[in-house]
Design a protein that fits this description.
By secondary structure, the chain is of the alpha+beta class. It folds into two domains: 10-68 and 165-184; 72-158, no CATH class. It has four helices and seven strands, in the order E-H-H-E-E-E-E-H-E-E-H. Strands 1, 2, 3, 4, 5, 6 and 7 form a seven-stranded mixed β-sheet that branches. Strand 3 (92-105) and strand 4 (108-112) form a beta hairpin. Helix 2 runs antiparallel to helix 4 (162-184). The longest helix has 28 residues, at 41-68. The chain is elongated.
């Protein structure tokens, strides 16, 4: 089944906060630059160190949260909805897999739409990719749910995400180390 929707804003509240914070940090650094024709290289290096350091901290935070999910408990649930949405906008057509499932914990029923521990969505411009995932999760299918025992409304189905978090962490760590080495004069950029 295919539904057509209009896209929502990319920036939600915490992403907006991070974006504005980074702009303010970079703007604050540029306010204190010396009045010279050419900006010294160390100001660029410090700016990049801040950006890559923040990215590294953010990736470590997600890695920590990912490993905490191994303490979550298992319940069984049932898929209620599984479909591919067609989204048309000025940049083209994309397909998004959406679904909902229901599970019970101690006389309380919960409904969730989290496939992974983090809010990763399957969005692609190739319809067959989203359709393949929808085929795996047909409505009525019973499956294992991982849920947070302290906040049972938080749950997911597939423990994936490490293959995304680790390369991001390695990249930001390597770039931060490179900028730190340049700042300390160990290497010359």
């Amino acid at each position: 089944m295919e539904k057509e929707i209009k896209p929502k804003s990319f920036f939600n509240s915490y992403k907006r906060f991070l974006f504005i914070g980074m702009i303010l940090i970079i703007s604050g650094i540029t306010l204190f630059l010396p009045e010279e024709e050419e900006i010294p290289k160390k100001y660029y290096i410090v700016s990049l160190m801040i950006v890559f350091g923040a990215g590294m901290v953010y990736a470590v935070y997600f890695l920590f949260r990912f490993f905490l999910t191994y303490k979550w408990k298992i319940a069984y649930g049932e898929i209620l909805q599984s479909e591919v949405l067609k989204i048309d906008d000025s940049e083209g057509t994309i397909y998004k897999f959406i679904f909902k499932y229901r599970y019970r914990i101690e006389n309380a029923e919960f409904i969730s739409d989290s496939l992974y521990p983090f809010k990763f969505y399957i969005v692609t411009n190739i319809k067959s990719i989203a359709s393949r995932v929808a085929e795996r999760y047909k409505p009525g299918r019973r499956l294992e749910i991982f849920y947070n025992p302290y906040r049972p409304e938080k749950s997911f189905i597939e423990r994936k995400g490490l293959t995304i978090i680790l390369p991001v962490l390695i990249f930001f760590s390597a770039m931060f180390s490179l900028m730190l080495s340049a700042f300390l004069g160990i290497i010359d950029l």
